Amino acid sequence: SSSSSSSSSSSSSSSSRNNSIVTGMLLHHQAPFCLSSRLRAVPCTHIKRRASPAAASPQRLRSSRRLPALLAAALHETNVLIIGNGGREHALAWKLSQSDLCKQLFVAPGNPGTAAEPKVQNIPLDPADHAAVVEFCRAHDVGLVMVGPEAPLVAGLADDVAAAGIRVFGPSAAAAQLEGSKKFMKDVCKKYNIPTAAYETFTEPDAAKEYIRQQGAPIVVKASGLAAGKGVIVAQTVDEACQAVDDMLVGAMFGEAGVMRVTCCAEHAVGDRTDAGRSYAAGHSMQKHSELGNQQAQFFGCTACPECCQGAQGACRALQRTASHGSRQRPMLSSNDSSSCCWMHLGFFFNSPRSTPHSRSTSQLARTCCCAQLSWPPAGSRVVVEEFLDGEEASFFALLDGPNAVALASAQDHKAVGDGDTGPNTGGMGAYSPAPVVTPEIEAQVMEDIVLRTSQAMVAEGCPFRGVLFAGLMIKDGKAKLLEHNVRFGDPECQGLMARLDSDLLAALMQACDGELSSVKLSWKPEASLTIVMAAAGYPGSYKKGTAINKTDAVSTAKVFHAGTALDATGQLVASGGRVLGVTALGEDVAAAQAAAYEGVRAIDWSDAYHRKDIGWRAVARLQQAQQA
User: Fold this and answer.
1) Which of 292, 418, 480, 547 has the highest local Cβ count within 10 Å?
2) Closest CA to 504 of 521, 518, 490, 489
3) pLDDT digit string (tens) for 15-56?
4) What separation in angstroms does the CA of 588 have from each of 53, 197, 497, 526?
């Protein structure tokens, strides 16, 4: 028996090493392979490029590089789970499903677009229910979980999946503070000499306003926590900046104050990691439990795992309170639930290891922990006031495995809702890649001064970053400064990146999860990509839901990624959100990609659609100037 066990362990270790080597060979493989046989007979599954002397045949969006048969035979296929339901997740599902390593791909909860992709199945899982996600992964032999949106990462989903022994691509909750707390991100930049704007942070309105008056305008005011991409005010006057401070710190612009959560005793004291949790509590749980909206000051329970709280009375499945709601009491764990409690979802609030509370018995937990009723303001409970930087903005993405980083690509998006970059900001009305302003010299500087320094900083801080890191850049005079970090792919930038990536994404993600990015080299198509977001009329203000969308399958010049769509009772595709579709095209240059994408937009029959008519204008103007020179 002992000999058999030893042999099995040795064989497993050898197999793991061999798979790692073969996966590396996959990423370096350069031989082209025709994928036409793998395309479904649906016009929208590929992109055509306008005929040119260099290439008259259609340019496939799908990767042209594929694992040779001998290497494919040596690899084990794996099941993949993607968390999310937007355009980013559709693009990731579309790309990952093309991998020879992908056996079955699940998306939770997904959308009608993901459901239509080969090898992809939507799953009605709630990402906030971490235990259910882990249980599903075990039941369906999932070998990789990829978390798309930021909120589940900030809430610690990656931690819980990893703790269950399942490979997960996405940063821990501690590392996700880079997006969850702008204060944390700026403090890291200051400590590790990462180029960024000068700043100060405030929790008191008067102090923030005094600082603004000293600095003058223009100046930037940011809500420190998650604010759905809308927590930044670029104030042109001092009065405007002071108003932004009042909106955030006094008016609860990004959520209502008074959300409660369960915390721990002094032994597991809460660290200074609260912005992310405050925002998630206000922005997710209060929406999910809308019936609690008028009883915020009485909501007593776990805001990071709303499924374990059963309403305004705060009756938690795991923690049984012994006195009336609202008082400080020592909780008793229910006899049949000694592990599935709020601790597993609130571990990111604690400095101690997540496993510590689980290692204790029920009686020990009851003796050492107390339920504290705390009032937490939302994302704007702390503001960052920073220097205004002028120049040209761009986005840059990289894969990180802790100490190592591999560059992905640059992009530029359009935040403003109106043509000419006018009107209120949105989640993004379109994007293109690569960004011409990010020259090879600037890319090298970004990797050296921003991405790698951030990677090293997070290792030094004890929370190594494993996932995709977004760097929002301001570029001037050939140098880039960091505006912000995000801890996931941007949306709609992700759609264009996936269209251009010519390597096996799943293999790269597996290498990143295993700490082996140093051997990864990615290949990119030479074409430019451009994505146009089709939104519901009225967005980002009020808009209709349920309007019919037709002829998405009639698009032959672009790939249509679904973001805010649903199927009604009759099976009709309808709009269910503000940003609804992302139409992505490739072209030999950004002008050709732009023409193909707008041709795709015109092919779609949706009477309630709104889209900008100038996506890519800056890059097209730069291209035209170069052609005239």
Assistant:
1) 480
2) 521
3) 444 454 444 444 444 333 332 222 222 333 333 333 333 332
4) 11, 36, 15, 7
